[in-house]
Please model this.
Amino acid sequence: MHKIFGIDLGTTNSSLAVLSEGKPRVIPIEDSNLVPSVVSLDPNTGEFIVGQRAKRRSILFPDYTVKSIKRLMGKDVRVHIGDQEMSPEEVSSKILYYIKTQGEKAINGPIDRVVITVPAYFNDAQRRATIRAGEMAGLDVVRIINEPTAASLVYEGPAEAASGRHHVLIYDLGGGTFDVSVLRIQGELREVLSSRGNTQLGGDDFDRKLLDYVLDQVKIKQGVDLSDDKRAIARLSEAVEQAKIALSTRPFARILEPGLAEREGRPVNLDMEISRPTFESLIEEFIDTTFYEVKHALEEASIEPEDLDRVILVGGSSHIPAVIEGLKMSINFSPELAVDPELCVALGAAVQGGIMAGEIFDQILVDVTAHSLGIRAFGKEDDYLSDRPDTFAVIIPRNTPIPVTRADVFYTIVENQKKVLIEVFQGESDRCRQNRSIDSFEMSLHPSPAHSDIVVEFSYDLDGIIHVVADQKGYNNRREVTMSVRERGTGDVQASTMEDYLQRKAKKLLKGKDMPEDDPARRHLIEALDAYTEAKASGSQEDLETLEEDLLDAIEALEED
Ligand code: ADP
Ligand code: MG
Model:
């Protein structure tokens, strides 16, 4: 069959995907899912370099390197690369050509027809420029679709969309731009009701903030000013981005750069640790403005947060825990975490390509944690009034794709504390007593001041095994314990918690309708939902159809109530 591929041609990164055996998959380019959207000219050979290698050259050879060309698409300007002059679409076509040829190597076949995504706010000229870029790269651009629309396709395929009308918010925080859109999906129609954002806000700003912070620290601690040292800055730029990414899953990140520069014949070495709160305080203002835009986008679409059916995270920077938490707080709605936000748009473009090529798209199935996992900690005010804290501190939130490793930092309470008790719980209440206790262990501590760091790391895999590591930081004192999360043979790990439309609708009804616990229609719906959910998890196709009908009946009955 003649495949139609999907391409996310991003400001910072691009990627390629295709629908195969009913599922959208990313095609790695030179072993990476993402291709930096950077083009650099090698003046010695006259060759164009694209992707990771070009990104590395951007600071050392800025005159020969072009980044973020997407910002100029559709504009009547010329871009200089060394002694050459090009239009924005010519530069973009170098990226697309690289993706086409490297992708062809990876799949060992031709890539001719593609769907390319663009921001919802792109005007006609910008869309046409994108099509021309594709054509220059030897591609047949069969359709241009909006990025938020593509992202929505991954979570709500045509089958789901057919089942009614719903509203989806797409929060996209990438490298250099932020976009938020509200979509209305009804049958085949996917309508962008509102779209707002900031074309000058993203992960690059976070990197710059962190870089400035590191440079300041070097100046304060070592009396060395590196801000004009191009080579040192080039190395540090890579290092701070890596540190930022590490902080999305860990409470600390170390930046270790020996021989970063030379001053008076002596090397300047950097060995520094950044904590998550330090990083969060540096970017707080930036991310707060995104939440403000989210509220505006909802207002413009005349949608209340509680009318939303889904919130989808898109863009590499939406991996940042403070972004996820902040968004959750500001609209009181948990975003979907099942699909890697960086790849969501490319995967959606592949779904669109698949639909156009007449292929069938199964709803995505991913393994995710069915419940949140965490430990007992001091936190809530009343913890300090009783002799035992009861705050549930989540380390791995529910619906996180597995396998996963996450860590967070906790603190000792008193000076020379002898030991800590690590008690692991599972559940959604913020109180431990209302959650399920998994297991616990004690760790002896070396003498240390009050408020010393204890890093607790959870690794959770597909077998329902959780590996816990507690580390008294800086004292070379660790304890590792493995525990099983499974209970009486029930699979805690759900085959998929990608709730479908019926499940969501049922839950929404149950939440929204104020009626007595023992109302028969309500009870019927709860039972039907449970049976359906169980059948879905066990994968028995026959039962599923009957149960689906039951559930639908129960929903209708309650709606009429
Ligand atoms: P764009 O849509 O602008 O092309 P992406 O969606 O690929 O960009 O996002 C790129 C940005 O995401 C970069 O700034 C990168 O550093 C950042 N990023 C990627 N992964 C993470 C992570 N795990 N935590 C924080 N930031 C990340
Ligand atoms: Mg993007």
User: Anything to note?
Assistant: Residues 488-498 have pLDDT under 50 and may be disordered. Residues 276-300 form the longest helix (25 residues). Residues 355 and 361 are 7 Å apart (CA to CA). The chain has 13 helices and 25 strands.
